[in-house]
Design a protein that fits this description.
about 20% strand; alpha/beta; 12 helices; elongated
Length: about 450
């Protein structure tokens, strides 16, 4: 079992940038603003074929008392799970009362503490560096997360003093939980994980970062993205909100499957329709989750179901699950639905089967060009891609109308028994590579 490392320190000392560099991925939001990180972000530090777990925590102090208490509790949980604490400070600020207070708190956990003086990218005063001896920590490293200075030595040291594990590449399905703010995404993820992993609150905008959380169900490995709520443009004047939304959109783009969460209390809004269109533009398989059904009566739920019919033309046969994340209602049903969708997403089809389906579709509804000449579609094969993509070869494929392309998508989806998996058809004017002598 690999040891875990925990980054702890005041707000705005560069913990998130340091985390990003150590895991070699731009995962945490990095802004010159206090209190940006609230949840605990988790990743892996890789060195050769080995890895250690690492936590990026919120700053222990914050101007927002409500979120400060929630973030503090999450930070303490991460410290308890870790073997080594990296106390991150800033050379620009020198030693502060906040650093002294945090160091005092950390000593009570009886953990190994390493002092990391960040932002040492410029020539700094030796006297300023000497100030940090007041913390009484025996081991320290001067680094610059911005320029990578000192990071290699720090990583080498961590792998010497920690128990590491061998890193093996696993096939991961990336799940992005998306939706408007305050629809219960984080509560749902906590229910799935059966632990209080993400900070939850009835205040909109609780989640700012897009968190990555590993999860296994029935032998399948997942990476869960808990994203910030996607707000209207008029609500994104604050720079933190803009960064949060951009991170959410990035997660949608990089995910394999999206879980779109809507609150049963609010019915379907214009913003929900916007998110639907984002999924459609990204050609993403998704499951529609209606949360908070415990808060509405049967009549309101009936009205909501009729509203959902509005999206029937872009749902790709998507499954709709009605749940209460707070009371764990239908959580297992959602998990099995996700598992089924993964099976459909990664299934491989022989060219002969796809070509037969294509021929059947063309025989039932032949397609002609503007000169009333028959357009012949000859064969189909599956492309190697992260989504379900099928190449269709034939003559005059550039003259096939959109209505017929949509017909073929629906026909393939029906014949392959797919549910919730969008099919991308790529039309090519090429000869059949499987035909001898061609």
């Amino acid at each position: 079992m690999s040891d875990s490392i925990c980054l702890v320190g005041r707000t705005n000392v560069g913990k998130s940038l340091l985390f990003n560099k150590l895991v070699q991925y731009k995962n945490s939001i990095v802004l010159n603003k206090h209190g940006v990180t609230r949840d605990v972000n988790e990743g892996k530090v890789l060195f050769e074929d080995k890895y250690l777990n690492i936590f990026d925590t919120a700053g222990i102090s914050s101007s927002d008392e409500h979120f400060s208490k929630l973030a503090y509790d999450k930070t303490i949980e991460a410290i308890n799970k870790s073997s080594v604490i990296l106390l991150v400070t800033s050379i620009d600020d020198g030693i502060t009362s906040g650093d002294l207070e945090i160091c005092s708190i950390l000593r009570k956990f009886n953990k190994r503490i390493i002092l990391v003086i960040n932002k040492c990218d410029k020539q700094k005063s030796l006297l300023k560096k000497f100030e940090f001896s007041e913390l009484g920590l025996d081991e320290l490293y001067e680094v610059s997360a911005k320029t990578n200075q000192g990071l290699e030595k720090l990583v080498e040291r961590l792998f010497k003093i920690c128990s590491w594990s061998i890193h093996k590449e696993m096939k991961l399905t990336r799940l992005a939980f998306i939706g408007k703010p305050n629809v219960g995404k984080s509560t749902l993820i906590n229910s799935i994980l059966n632990e209080s992993r993400s900070i939850t609150s009835d205040k909109p905008g609780t989640t700012i970062d897009s968190l990555e959380i590993p999860f296994t169900f029935k032998g399948q490995n997942f990476l869960i993205y808990d994203t910030a709520g996607i707000m209207k443009k008029a609500s994104t004047k604050e720079i933190v909100n803009k960064y949060s939304i951009n991170m959410s959109l990035k997660c949608i783009s990089e995910s394999n499957i999206c879980i779109l969460v809507i609150s049963a209390e609010e019915l379907v809004s214009k913003q929900d329709k916007t998110i639907f269109n984002i999924l459609k533009d990204n050609n993403k398989p998704f499951i529609l989750v209606i949360n908070k059904i415990d808060l509405v009566n049967k009549n309101d739920l009936k009205i909501l179901k009729s509203k959902i019919d509005y999206f029937s033309n872009i749902l790709f046969g998507t499954k709709i699950i009605y749940i209460s994340a707070l009371h764990n209602r239908n959580i297992r049903k959602l998990l099995f639905t996700i598992r089924s969708l993964v099976t459909n997403l990664y299934r491989e089809y022989r060219p002969s089967r796809l070509t037969k389906i294509l021929n059947d579709a063309c025989n039932k509804h032949p397609i002609k060009n503007s000169s009333n000449r028959l357009i012949k579609l000859k064969f189909a094969k599956q492309n190697k891609s992260s989504d379900l993509s099928i190449s269709i070869h034939g003559n005059q494929t550039d003259k096939i109308p959109d209505s017929y392309r949509k017909y073929l998508v629906n026909y393939f989806s029906d014949q392959l028994g797919l549910s919730g998996v969008p099919i991308k058809l790529v039309f090519k004017k090429e000869k059949n590579p499987y035909k001898m002598g061609s």
